[in-house]
């Protein structure tokens, strides 16, 4: 196994520089100056004959003589641009160095395509004025894309090895970038430095909805965001009432704001390649909360009950909350809702109306 080329602490980097244009290596490529040529500028040998005594032609050789100054100030050909994102070989090298074997348990599928990273950042509308929360940064693919914009990034990582390595990777690739790493479970954090304004993340498939709802609940400063989730989950988050995939996540997401799908993502841009497709989901938060926290909890409890038995009429599915179907019918009717309707037909405001009609 070859020695990893990336994420080395200061002083441990290899002495040799990568050749311009060559892939692999966290260090930035440095364009090497061209050596001075020993050959004369002209390809023809100097003439031994004396200069011609004929007068110079009245017609100039060119419409405008070349300026001697312009010849001496022409910039040298640009070398390869500095690398600021991770490529496939670099990601695999980092994983090998850290002993990371991506697991389904933690939902670890790392993005290895730079074009996809920049697409996510562009669709998210990130600017240098933003403080962005990223959940599950992994090896840093998306983190580096976010930092390219000049935004401040707060990365929440549960894996201790990845959390420790991420600042080293960023410092090698984009020195001085404003990154803060929180080593914790995103489902438990209750404080984030810097009043985050946006959420951008490749959310682990197995906990994507709970993490999203937790962050929206506890961090009202997050005004908008873009998350990459399993396609089925993303479509459910953005589904309107009456849709076949409309469900509890759809209603709860709508409590906080407007959600929409923003494009599919090929499974081939991940390593390892997942068995499911992914989708981008964008959201914008409501200017003001729908209601109080007490009514939010009451509304969410009704939503859960309605979709646990989604094929049943509301008077039956909500009887668990109200004691019996007769009482459930009274409460639902008092809210102006048909008790024979099903949960999949109700908007978040309909569920809220039933919660308000409940003593």
TrEMBL record:
Residues 1-86 are annotated as: Disordered. GO terms for cellular component: cytosol. It is an enzyme of class 2 (transferase). Residues 33-71 have a biased composition (Low complexity). It catalyses: adenosine(1518)/adenosine(1519) in 16S rRNA + 4 S-adenosyl-L-methionine = N(6)-dimethyladenosine(1518)/N(6)-dimethyladenosine(1519) in 16S rRNA + 4 S-adenosyl-L-homocysteine + 4 H(+). SUPFAM superfamilies: S-adenosyl-L-methionine-dependent methyltransferases (SSF53335). InterPro entries: KsgA/Erm, rRNA_Ade_diMease-like_C, rRNA_Ade_Mease_Trfase_CS, rRNA_Ade_methylase_Trfase_N, rRNA_adenine_dimethylase, SAM-dependent_MTases_sf. This is Ribosomal RNA small subunit methyltransferase A. The gene is rsmA.
């Amino acid at each position: 196994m070859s020695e990893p080329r990336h994420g080395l602490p200061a002083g441990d980097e290899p002495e040799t520089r990568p050749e311009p244009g060559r892939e692999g290596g966290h260090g930035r490529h440095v364009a090497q100056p061209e050596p001075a040529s020993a050959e004369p500028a002209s390809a023809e040998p100097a003439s031994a004959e004396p200069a011609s005594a004929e007068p110079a032609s009245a017609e100039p050789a060119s419409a405008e003589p070349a300026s001697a100054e312009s010849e001496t100030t022409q910039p040298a050909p640009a070398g390869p641009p500095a690398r600021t994102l991770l490529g496939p070989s670099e990601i695999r090298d980092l994983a090998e160095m850290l002993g990371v074997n991506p697991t389904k348990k933690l939902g670890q599928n790392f993005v290895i395509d730079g074009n996809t990273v920049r697409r996510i950042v562009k669709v998210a509308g990130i600017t240098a004025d933003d403080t962005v929360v990223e959940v599950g940064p992994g090896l840093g693919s998306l983190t580096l894309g976010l930092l390219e914009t000049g935004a401040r990034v707060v990365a929440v990582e549960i894996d201790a090895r990845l959390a420790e390595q991420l600042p080293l990777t960023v410092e090698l690739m984009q020195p001085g970038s404003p990154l803060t790493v929180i080593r914790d479970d995103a489902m438990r954090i209750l404080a984030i430095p810097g009043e985050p304004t946006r959420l951008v993340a490749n959310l682990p498939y197995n906990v994507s909805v709970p993490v999203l709802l937790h962050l929206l609940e506890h961090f009202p400063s997050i005004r908008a965001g873009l998350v990459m989730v399993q396609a089925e989950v993303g479509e459910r988050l953005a589904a309107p009432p009456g849709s076949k995939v409309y469900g509890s996540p759809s209603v709860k997401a709508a409590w906080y704001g407007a959600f929409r799908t923003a494009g599919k993502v090929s499974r081939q841009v991940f390593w390892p390649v997942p068995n499911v497709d992914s989708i981008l989901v964008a959201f914008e938060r409501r200017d003001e909360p729908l209601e109080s926290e007490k009514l939010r909890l009451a509304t969410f409890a009704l939503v859960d009950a309605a979709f646990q038995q989604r094929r049943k009429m509301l008077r039956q599915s909500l009887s668990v909350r109200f004691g019996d179907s007769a009482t459930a019918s009274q409460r639902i009717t008092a809210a102006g809702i048909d008790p024979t309707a099903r949960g999949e037909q109700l908007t978040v405001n309909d569920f809220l109306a039933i919660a308000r009609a409940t003593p």
